Request: fold
Amino acid sequence: MKNSNLKIIDHKFEVLELLGSGQSGEVYRVSFKEKEFALKLLKKKTKEKTSEEQKVRAFKFEFALLKGLHHKNIVQLFDFGQDPESQRFYYTQELIAGHSLASEKLTLDLNKKQNLFLQALQGLAYLHRHQVLHGDLKPENLLVFTTDNQELQLKLIDFGLSHPKLALSGGTPAYMAPEKILKESVDERSDLYALAVIFYQLLTGANPFVRDNLTETLQAHLQHLPSSATLLDSKIPPVWSQLLERMLVKNPQHRIYSAEACIQFLESKGEITSFIPSVTRIPESWIGRRETLQACKAFLKNIHSKKTNQQEPEFLLLLGEHGWGQNALLNELKYEAELFGLHVCEAPDQNAKYTNPVSPISV
Reply:
């Protein structure tokens, strides 16, 4: 267990241990009402005002972008807030008891590696269908755990570089697509390149681009053509090696164009059974309730603009028949209130139906 000086965050999350630390923040295992979560805490403020504003903007963007996405291969986010003592922003997400693909504790045979590769493609396909780039795919950001059915499941985590400005130049050099290095435009194919490097390394045991220093590593991404994975390990089926080669093409214009196309390639070669995309729910859709949602958000924005003054309490009453989506709407408004910095109180939960750390909604 890693040590942490923090004991309580936002007066309610008990810190159990520090799970890890990166450039933008720390991730803690926390407990709230007998449930455990992972809590990502933005790092302390720096002296550079512009840099601090950019970090907070990207942090809020990451949460707002991902809060409505639901897929078995993507980490689920819950609540956003700010710790009043440290003035540091945070959000909570599901706690995954497993190991990253970078862990030496993870032992996998070829079939398991191929299955995880497919799961990663499925997660990316879901993200990309909703115009979300990951921006920093690397082994540390792919977590693997064992389900109750004793099956290995992979989840993509840490979307801190999903912001368009950060996705353009950010990333990890060992897995960075050539177009990022050249400061050219990026799209879904940059994620595909990074994922291919990860699984080339997982399948063959070596990253083909890593060199003794940063300059040589970046140059290798631009010029070096990796050997066929099958040539390095004859157990790797040629079809999977061919897919990696198509994902690692230097020029993104000639690279395979999508995660779904990668999956379809494996399907066409008989490597996998038919792939059916997951059913999705994106908050922005709100078919038939868009005007209601916008009116409620305007109400919250108005409260936010007046919160520094003494005001009489204001209430928003939502009425509707059972099944019209009140809970989904309340959850969306809870997220919006948290991003505005409004305090969200827990509603009485006699039936314990909510799994989120904080239930909707009173501000």
